[in-house]
Amino acid sequence: MPYVNKPRPYKHEYAMQKKRGENPERAERQRARRALDAKGIDRKGKDVSHVKALSKGGSNAHGVTLQTPSENRSYKRNSNHKPASALDVPKGKRKIKV
After folding, report:
1. For the chain, what is the mean pLDDT?
2. So what's the pLDDT on residue 89?
3. Strand (E) or helix (H) holding 47
4. Is residue 36 predicted with pLDDT exceeding 90?
5. How buried is 64 (Cβ within 10 angstroms: 0-12 exposed, 13-18 middle, 19+ buried)?
6. d(Cα 64, Cα 51) in Å, to the nearest integer?
7. End-to-end CA distance of the chain
8. What's residue 79's pLDDT?
9. How many helices (H) and strands (E) would you count in the chain?
10. Where are the domains of the chain?
11. Is the CB of residue 27 less than 8 Å from the CB of residue 21?
């Protein structure tokens, strides 16, 4: 519990969010959810995913889809924090199916 003896610095946290650029992306996600709600689309239990990820420069103009939460989460990562794939394994260690 980090803030036992002192108040939580909300102003500082908000300033850091703005500095990292989190607010515009959050607003873009909210607009996408509200647009689907306005169309009457039931999104219960689903995530609104952007066709081109916001972190990669996408926007609502690039399109949004509904996905299950497990499909919309990031790729499985290896110990180097890079996406894990069969090609990451050294050639001598790859298992070849015959």
Report:
1. 82
2. 52
3. strand 47-50
4. yes
5. buried
6. 6
7. 54
8. 80
9. 3, 2
10. 10-68
11. no
